[in-house]
């Protein structure tokens, strides 16, 4: 199979026949016609020799040489027709002329050349027939009226010119049509192969995008909840003996967060499982062509990339930021939220992405700067929404610092992928004061 990066080169089929013949059958046919034409011209050469007053052997040799030219009809059809016109006054070469005229009309030569040679053949046949009929009438072998001579001449000339010419034109046009259809079929097959390869590539790309999206969702859902649970468990260890009431509250918070994390995980797994069940309930769809599958998968990925997924409406939104910050505050983080501009509703994908950016940024603070004061800024602008999460340097000693939260380095990558997929800008990095800042701007 030819890949998309390779050029398609047409390789001519190997010839099975000798010399200029494409097939052995064609060579046998032309040689048989040449033998028949040679025999005809050889016998007619005897009469020509006697009429011209030359030896019979010379007439036979002349006829044999002239008749054998028919073997070259596929290679040089013009030469065959010209030779037949040249020997026509010697009353020989009619088979060669008829077959040559048919071959000429069926060839790929320009129409003006075919028309010119056919006209020459018609005029030659008309003149020769006219002379023959007048000679027969003069010798008394025919007794007819004067009108019969031109009528017989025209009829005979048309009879030996029109049928082979029309048949050759029809066969040539049909051959060109078949070749055109064959070329179009080959071209269509190549295009289908390219479409199948591209669809396969797009389907693989869509699968990779879907895996990345699922991994990002799982990370966003689990990482924040589990991080808060770990922070609360560390605080619970620190105050278990000193303040039992606070330990009880922290234990209740850990339980609540664990249940929330399990609920969100069940929802995501339920969506994935329901998708698999729908695919299993429709086994006949496995017969859909690969190009359609790839196009559907790519279209789904495009919808996800453009933020038009219907499932986005079921995710978190900006109105949930207060609850998110409250959870972080309950874990002992000092969080300051400020909102600029007039609050308004956005597309579900935009609100979910903005929420996830703030959520992941707070999770990173829990992991790497526990106890540091954090500032969350949200700005509603005319054509965009901007968010920034910045934390101060962490204190030297923190009750939650012993939590030892692991980090896979996927949080910032996931945030950037989300924002860039919506056409936004994402920037993150340390501040001059020793803290860390996450900024994102998403077109509205």
UniProtKB/TrEMBL annotation:
Coiled coil spans: 171-209
GO MF: ATP binding; phosphorelay sensor kinase activity; protein dimerization activity
Signal transduction histidine kinase subgroup 3 dimerisation and phosphoacceptor domain sequence ranges: 210-275
GO cellular component terms listed in the entry, alphabetical order: membrane
Domain of life assignment: Bacteria
InterPro entries in UniProt: HATPase_C_sf (IPR036890), Sensor_HK_TwoCompSys (IPR050482), Sig_transdc_His_kin_sub3_dim/P (IPR011712)
Xref: SUPFAM superfamilies: ATPase domain of HSP90 chaperone/DNA topoisomerase II/histidine kinase
Catalytic activity: ATP + protein L-histidine = ADP + protein N-phospho-L-histidine
CDD domains on file: HATPase_UhpB-NarQ-NarX-like (cd16917)
UniProt keyword annotations, A-Z: ATP-binding, Coiled coil, Kinase, Membrane, Nucleotide-binding, Phosphoprotein, Transferase, Transmembrane, Transmembrane helix, Two-component regulatory system
E.C. designation(s): 2.7.13.3
Membrane spanning residue stretches: 78-102, 114-135, 147-172
Annotated PANTHER family: NITRATE/NITRITE SENSOR PROTEIN NARX-RELATED (PTHR24421), NITRATE_NITRITE SENSOR PROTEIN NARQ (PTHR24421:SF10)
Protein name, per record: histidine kinase
Species of the source: Streptomyces muensis
